[in-house]
Specification:
With 133 residues, the protein is mainly beta. The chain is built from 1 helix and 12 strands. The protein has a 5-stranded antiparallel beta sheet, with no helix packed on it. Strand 2 and strand 3 form a beta hairpin.
């Protein structure tokens, strides 16, 4: 995968007992999992993200609520995705600028291909655009 795309996780169960979805590396998750983190209680007027990664790939999941994700690739292609079901995830490839805006009750799970490394982040949009040259 080299572009942002929705991943659908199998939903097991039924409405009387509830559901479970499973994410396994190199199956539904197209990389080796190195880190998992989550965000919550983010105010609706806050836009998070605003960065790209040189090497890290991620899958974003809205475990609760909804998340609007805007992506831009190094070639300038822009997409918008709405994550609002816990059995859907969004693959974010490396070198993909992304922003996220949350509903008041959103809980986001992030599955990442690498451990945290500040040197992997491109935090300036101008620097990201300069990578296109």
């Amino acid at each position: 995968m080299t572009t942002p795309e929705i991943i659908t996780f199998k939903r097991n169960g039924d409405s009387s007992l509830g559901y479970i979805s499973i994410a396994e590396e190199n199956s539904q998750i197209p990389f080796e999992i190195k880190r998992i983190f989550w965000t919550y209680y983010t105010p609706e007027d806050v836009i998070r993200g605003k960065h790209a990664h040189y090497e890290t790939e991620m899958v974003l999941i809205a475990a609760a609520g909804s998340i609007t994700v805007k992506t831009e690739l190094i070639d300038g292609s822009i997409q918008e995705f709405i994550l609002d079901k816990p059995d859907k995830g969004l693959f974010i490839p490396k070198m993909c600028w992304h922003t996220m805006q949350y509903s008041h009750n959103a809980v986001q799970i992030v599955i990442a291909s690498s451990l945290y490394d500040e040197n992997d982040y491109i935090r300036s949009y101008d620097n990201f655009k300069a990578e296109q040259i």
